[in-house]
Structure formats: C-alpha cells, structure tokens
Amino acid sequence: MLSLFATGHRAATSAPLPGAVERECTARAHLLPVGAEAVLTSVARVTNPALALRLRELGLREGATLTIGNKTAGGGRVVTVDGCRYALDVATLASLDVQR
C-alpha cells in the first residue's frame, strides 16, 4: 500500500508549502460560453510537443487572456488572444486549462 507522502500527494486539508503558487483550474476552454474571458493557466495537457510549441508561438501560453468566440463547424471555437483570432478544434480546447 502506498502512503500519500510516498506518492508526493498531500492531504487536502494541509496548508500550501511556503513559496508554492496555488493555481485553481476552474474550467477547460471548451466548456466556456461564447463571449467569456479567461486566463490560460496551463497547456500541459497538450500531449503533442509540436502542438504545444505552436500554441505558445501563437500566444496561447500561461497568463494569456482568452476570449471565447463562436463555434466552428467541427465543434471547435474561435479564440481571440491579444487581438488575434484563431480557430481551435475541440480536442485542443479541451486540453487548455483556464481560470475565469
């Protein structure tokens, strides 16, 4: 049997470690309504390294403010970042963690 400390997990009631940055992921980008603004907290769920790099090159990196636009034909969304609009498929949007 593995203990919680052996796996690196802490109990939910414990205080955060000193210097630790606590990020709360409130949603995934594909679940946000049209017109919602959110701050991108992580692209770590993107499993393809080339896609993750390309998203960062386009400005979709941690700390960027996203505005969710209309749905596209395949179920994706148009996303606005720093005045630029990008059409992203639903799988890519589902891998983006955002905070509202």
UniProtKB/TrEMBL annotation:
Keywords recorded for this protein, A-Z: Iron
Domain of life: Bacteria
MF GO annotations: transition metal ion binding
UniProt xrefs under InterPro entries: Fe-transptr_FeoA-like, FeoA_core_dom, Transcriptional_repressor_C
One Pfam family, short name: FeoA
Stretches assigned to the Ferrous iron transporter FeoA-like domain: 32-89
Name listed for the protein in its UniProt record: Ferrous iron transport protein A
Organism: Corynebacterium phoceense
